[in-house]
Amino acid sequence: MRGAFLFVTGLLIGTAIPAIVAQTPPALPAHRLNHVAISVPDIAQTLTWYGDKLGIREVVRNTNAQGQLMSAYIQVSRDTFIELQQANAQRPAGLNHFGFEVPDIKSAVAAYRQRGLTVSEPGAPSAFTGGILANITEPNVGRIELSEQPPEGKLRKATESWK
Predict the structure, then answer these.
(1) Residue 1: Cβ within 10 Å count
(2) Where are the alpha helices (DSSP H) in the chain?
(3) Which of 4, 27, 143, 158 to pair with 109, CA 20 to 30 A apart?
């Protein structure tokens, strides 16, 4: 009788564990805050202000085909940046997004999707920074940018040269 009880108990526990594990969301991928993106009315004036008043230096610059400054990264600390973007009709002044850096974007995208999030496919390396990017749809800000920063990426190089 005791043997039958232990057998049935083992069966129930063995059946319940996979069901419980399947309901547990997968672990979060390793990530850290990489940047906050702010759209500003006058990017050149804003870069000057951050440089002159706060001593924060520009590390990456993005211009359009006409040579106009469209966005730039300034380096706040070794691993943290502010992305300044020129405000326009499609991108009003204010907080635009924030970005997490992940060591492996494909596995991060898969893990976030398993947790029920809407995440875009990673694209080719960005011409602006060299990072491989994907986006999470976020209900308040609108999006969270994911980035994998390869060794040849501009933000990785800025991080490694931080003094």
Answers:
(1) 5
(2) 2-23, 43-54, 105-114, 154-160
(3) 158
The residue among 131, 125, 121, 120 whose CA lies nearest residue 83 is 131
* Measured distance CA(157)–CA(145) in Å, rounded: 19
Q: Which single residue is written with the structure tokens 């390793």?
A: 30
Give the integer Cα–Cα distance in Å for 81 and 131. 14
Strand partners of residue 119: 136
Q: What is the largest CA-CA distance in the chain?
A: 85
d(CA 106, CA 62): 26
Q: How confident is the chain (163 residues) per 10-residue block, as mean pLDDT?
A: 48 50 68 96 97 97 94 96 96 96 96 96 94 94 94 94 89
pLDDT at 39: 97
Q: Which two tokens stand for residue 57?
A: 């230096």
Per-residue model confidence (pLDDT) at position 11: 47
Output the pTM of the full model.
0.81
Structure tokens at 124: 């080719």
CA–CA gap between residue 73 and residue 130 (Å, rounded):
13
pLDDT for res 118:
96
